[in-house]
Amino acid sequence: MLGNHGRSITRTIFTPLARALAAMRVTPNMVTVAGTVATIGISAGVLARGHLAVGAIALGVVLFCDSVDGVLARLTGQESEFGAFLDSTLDRLGDGAVFGALLAWAALGMEPGGVRTVSVIAGTIAMVGVGTVPYARARAESVGVVAKVGLAERTDRLVVALAGAAVTEWGLPQAFYAVGLSWVAAASLVTVIQRIVFTKRALEAA
């Protein structure tokens, strides 16, 4: 949802930056790799160590800048199938790092109790959803169906999970951490089901 509505805004914002990068001969694939390296580094070095607010904000900035490579590719005429493949593949690595860090802190940083148990279970389901949601879309496209439907896109899942982590360090109960991961877990499952149903109906109609 957030991703769809935000693309036109980010395209407008990042066009000047893309022009500057193009002048420096920076390629879209370089930007993609750099963003993934930053995401993994912040997740492992900051978020997983319990610096939840700083980590969430830093990852939010990286997430907001995620459109730069696409804007740069369109601006310089370097759009390619490999670029799209690389971007999608590295997104999975970045998402895995974020939710892996959130899961690690829940398991190792929280006091034993119901909130930690819920957070660990929800974080585990969210980790599975990180791979399954885009996989469902990719498999649908392999049989000729564009299954972009779903309750929660990548941006939605990351924003909710990181917001839940940040407000926890700002003094709100750790239940907000569990709620954020639980929403991501549930929304991921719903999204997968929606894409399965959509693909089935599209194939039957065809």
TrEMBL record:
One of its GO terms (molecular function) is transferase activity. Contains a di-nuclear catalytic Mg(2+) center. Pathway: Lipid metabolism; Phospholipid metabolism; phosphatidylinositol phosphate biosynthesis. Its cofactor is Mg(2+). Its EC number is 2.7.8.-. The chain crosses the membrane at residues 26-47, 117-136, 175-193. Mg(2+) 1 binds at D66, D69, D87. It catalyses: 1,2-di-(9Z-octadecenoyl)-sn-glycero-3-cytidine-5'-diphosphate + 1D-myo-inositol 3-phosphate = 1,2-di-(9Z-octadecenoyl)-sn-glycero-3-phospho-(1D-myo-inositol-3-phosphate) + CMP + H(+); a CDP-1,2-diacyl-sn-glycerol + 1D-myo-inositol 3-phosphate = a 1,2-diacyl-sn-glycero-3-phospho-(1D-myo-inositol-3-phosphate) + CMP + H(+). A CDP-1,2-diacyl-sn-glycerol binds at N29, M30, V31, T32, G70, R74, S80. It is a multi-pass membrane protein. Keywords: Cell membrane, Lipid biosynthesis, Lipid metabolism, Magnesium, Membrane, Metal-binding, Phospholipid biosynthesis, Phospholipid metabolism, Transferase, Transmembrane, Transmembrane helix. InterPro entries: CDP-OH_P_trans (IPR000462), CDP-OH_PTrfase_TM_dom (IPR043130), CDP_ALCOHOL_P_TRANSF_CS (IPR048254), PIP_synthase_PgsA1 (IPR044268). It is found in: Cell membrane. The active site is at D91 (proton acceptor). It comes from the Bacteria. Mg(2+) 2 binds at D66, D87, D91. Homodimer. Catalyzes the conjugation of the 1'-hydroxyl group of D-myo-inositol-3-phosphate (also named L-myo-inositol-1-phosphate) with a lipid tail of cytidine diphosphate diacylglycerol (CDP-DAG), forming phosphatidylinositol phosphate (PIP) and CMP. PIP is a precursor of phosphatidylinositol (PI) which is an essential lipid required for cell wall formation. Belongs to the CDP-alcohol phosphatidyltransferase class-I family. This is Phosphatidylinositol phosphate synthase. It comes from Schaalia naturae. The gene is pgsA.
